[in-house]
């Protein structure tokens, strides 16, 4: 009974609250990951860092899997599994590989060679892609304010890319982009596609099955890729007690809690709300990078971040207006329904 009451309370919480919590958690994830790796550098094992980025992702996922099984094991009953089609399993597998293995691997690789604030800013091509995909796949109306906000934010990305420099450079056209920035851009494309597909999947697939299966697929694929690229010696310190202690905390706060809030919000949120959350993320992440790592933004990042802030304001106005239109439309529909039922409109 208490569980049902708690579930009802959680269902009444607006999607914007879940998304806001997820944004804060995800904004802190990259700086926390960098800080955790620094702790490993201070506790070397035979000259090796036991808390390498690969170990963080792999062991963190294993810890998260244990927590997910504890929380969601009831979702894996016969009726739920029987209801899933072959198409559902294929779709889950593909998104698990893309968002659970490839995208995190790209981000974690970029973390080792690129400024965190740059990673945050370059990754903001995701909202504009999500808008386009939402319009294409979900027939979501394009609000002019929200479109303008995404365009302005994209301009902030371009400014950052043009003015930033990186130790490792890849020539693209008339200017240079760092290798880390390119990896983040690819990860953003994958994430934007996964966001739309995940929203569709969660309409028919229980969140517990979704999270656990994606975690398992992502972990296996990532492990195989890492073994091929770096060899099995790369995970030599995967059983370090310090690593597991930190990953239990990391998995609880970042992987499980953050993903749970995001996916719960995703099931109820509109594309415009998701876009607003995505635009809010870099602003929060820049603040977190400064608070956790003391990483002061460069002039290029200040300029790009300022445009992101303007874009966020535009999108906020657009989201506010869109919600007002939806409420007014709902009222009109309700009044018409009442007129039909009553059959009398008054004098």
Please describe what this structure looks like.
The chain has 347 residues and is mostly helical. The chain is 78% helix and 2% strand. It has 13 helices and 2 strands, in the order ααααααααββααααα. It has a two-stranded antiparallel sheet. Strand 1 and strand 2 form a beta hairpin. Helix 7 (125-137) runs antiparallel to helix 8. The N and C termini lie far apart (49 Å). The model is unreliable at 166-176 and 331-347 (pLDDT under 50).
Summarize the structure.
The protein is mostly helical. It contains 13 helices and two strands; from the N terminus they run H-H-H-H-H-H-H-H-E-E-H-H-H-H-H. Strands 1-2 form a two-stranded antiparallel ribbon.
Write the layout of secondary structure elements.
Layout: H1 2-12, H2 15-41, H3 53-72, H4 78-83, H5 86-111, H6 116-122, H7 125-137, H8 144-163, E1 169-172, E2 175-178, H9 179-201, H10 207-230, H11 241-268, H12 271-293, H13 299-342
Antiparallel strand pairs: 1-2
Helix pairs in contact: 2-11, 2-12, 3-10, 3-11, 5-9, 5-10, 6-9, 6-12, 7-8, 7-9, 7-12, 8-13, 12-13
Classification by helices and strands: mainly alpha
User: Main beta sheet, described?
Assistant: 2 strands, antiparallel
- SSE topology string: HHHHHHHHEEHHHHH
Number of helices: 13
- Number-wise, the strands total 2
User: What Rg, in angstroms, do the CA atoms define?
Assistant: 22 Å
Distance between the termini: 49 Å
Weakly predicted, low-confidence segments: 166-176, 331-347
Strands of the widest sheet, in order across it, are: 1-2
Fraction of residues in helix: over 70%
| Spatial shape | globular
Strand content: under 5%
Give the overall average pLDDT.
78
